[in-house]
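From the pipeline queue, job 12 of 40. The input is one protein chain; the requested action is below.

Action: predict structure.
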Amino acid sequence: MQLAEHKRQPVQVNAVALKAYARIAAAWGLGQREAARLADMSESTWKRARRPDFTGELTQDQLLRLSALIGIYKSLELYFSEPLARRWFTRANTGPLFAGSRPIDTAIDGGLPQIMAIRTYLDALRGGA
């Protein structure tokens, strides 16, 4: 019985993370390609992963990315008013991590380390670190 419960947990965790990320991608106005690349998935996998009946597994990297992106979203919602909170990730930024690029582009190019750096940066802005 414990083995069956253990196998279900990652599916449940994946489902919750994917559902939350799909909502964030929509709130940020991300296209299929951007959302897939940010999550380190092919576009076809992202399309399947958005379905409620998706039972595929996420890699540890993908799950960490989604977790960090959820944290980024939460920080933005707490720190900025809604219009800026929703656009911040996709607007050019002259901050030290971005050098005039959009945070989403640096996150896609830099992968998990850059996503985590952005999360840490936002946590520091809102006084969390």
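Job complete. The chain has one domain: 2-125.
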